[in-house]
Structures are given as structure tokens and as C-alpha cells.
Amino acid sequence: MQAKENKIKVNNQLLLPTMGCGTWAWGNKLLWDYDQSQDQNLQEVFNFCVDKGVTLFDTGDSYGTGKLKGRSEQLLGQFTRDYQGDEKDNICIATKLAAYPWRLTRQSMVSACQASAERLGKPVDLAQMHWPTANYAPWQENALLDGLADLYEQGEVKGVGLSNYGPKRLKQIHQRFSQRGVPIVTLQVQYSLLSTVTVEKLGLKALCDDLGIQLIAYSPLTLGLLTGKYGNGVFPKGIRGLLFRYLLPGIQPVLDTLREIANFRGKTLSQVALNWCICKGTIPIPGAKNLEQAQENVGALGWRLSEAEVKELDLASNQISRQMVQNIFQTR
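== Aldo/keto reductase ==
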């Protein structure tokens, strides 16, 4: 059973599963069409994931649009309280604290995490810096990082991590935190078969392995594009639809290889794409808005691609002419 899969020990207080669940869509109207009538479906997603050992839920204090800002954290707090299964004690809520322009001091990060804990109704397990400011306001960043380290030193969280950092900046921050005896346990970056530059070409995975940092892969299905459900006139609404129309003509080698392996394995394209991330030593955090999507995601667990299949997918990834658009905050 998936619930018995090995956990990844990132420090003495945190055990993470092989795969997590991203909750960007939980509260986001603009990109994901959220409305509160979906809450019961989301509770079912949460319960199913936890029952199957997918106990890591990634959120952010900026998740949720307009008046719904923070909605994802609120829902996760409610769902955690209502869940009564055997895996309850293993639930890990990882939240990302936004580097808003008005957050200028180390105390602002501590306060932000405390506000997240209030929305959750429980302490944050893993606090992460949502994005670096190095690309536009480098003078802002050190104070926020100091505040992140303060959270760990003060016992407010079980661990701290980063998001959207490349190898050059990661080395600098790791040295800064090491001087205080604060371990960076996770780094979250965009990673999928359509987005490999930072992790592989720039050597981020190898560096994380050297530093003892667990890499978390967000958008492992490229916003749903790697499910194989789009094309031939079928596209999602809005921004995603425009992006998919741009990307699809250049990614056929990946889709063809995914389909070939999926047919051979009796799996879906998305399950093969997620398993590839796992075979690469990352923890993918695909999203799910309903039970069917959650069930499909969990089908990526309990088996592994062969080395030959991983190499086939690597080759296909190298042959695409269009990579996923990179996060504008991602540093080198």
C-alpha cells in the first residue's frame, strides 16, 4: 500500500513522503476557477491523500486570490482538524512566506509565519521563503532570510526551506545559515520533463545532494500539460490555455515517449511523469482539485520506472524545442 512507502527523513522532526500535494489551486479563482462549493471535494482529496501516505501539503500565505488570500491555509487547517485516520500524526503542512515589498525586517517574517499558524489553527511544520528578491531588490533579502532562521531557532517551526533559488545563491545562503547552526532542509523549484534547466543543466540537484537538502519539484505536470489531455482544439481557459497553445508544438517528443511508456506500463501519462520526478530523487507536489485527480496522482506510487525508461524520457526532454516558461523570481 502507498501509505507504507518509505518516508524521507530531512531532520530529526520531519519525515516527508515520496510525493506531496500542492494546494495552489485551493482558493485561486484567477487561474484555477476556485469557488467555495468545491470545499467538500477538496476535503475528500485531503483525506484520500493522507490515507495513502501523501502527507505533505504545500501551501503559501499568498495562495488564494483577492479576498480569498490565505484561503488555502485556512482549508488545510480545517481539513487537518477534521481528519481522524491513522496517518494524522504524519501530516506535514509546508507553507511559503511571500517576500512582499512591505516585509522588510526579520520580525516581519516571524509575524508572517505566526499569521499562517493562526489560519492553520496549528504551528507551521515547514516554513519556506517563497521567492528570492535578488533579481529586483537584493537589499531586502537578507533580513527576510534572518527572520526565517529565527523561526527555527525560536522553535516556531520544525524546519525551514527555500523556493525558487538556483545553485549560486543557494551556496551563499547555506553558508549564512550554517554559521547560525540552522539547517536548510528543503529547496522547492519548478521541475518537470518540460523544465529541467535549473535542476540538471545548472547542477542544482547535485549541489542539494552535497548539502543534504531535499529537492521538492513543483509544477511536475507543467500545470496539467503532461496529462496528455490537451491539444486538438481542447485547451483550458485563460492564461493556461494561451501557454499550452505556445508549448504544445514543441513538446511532442516528451508526450510521445510518455504515451509509449504509459501504454507499456498500464499507467497514465501523468503517473509516468510523476514517477520520473521521483526516480530523479525529488519529491513532486502535483495539485488535485477532485478525488479523481488525487487518485491518478497516487497511482504514480508503489512502482518505479526502469533506468532505461528514465533515460528514454531524459532523451525526449532534451529534444523538445520549447521549455516551460521559468519563474521570473528564479535565481541562478
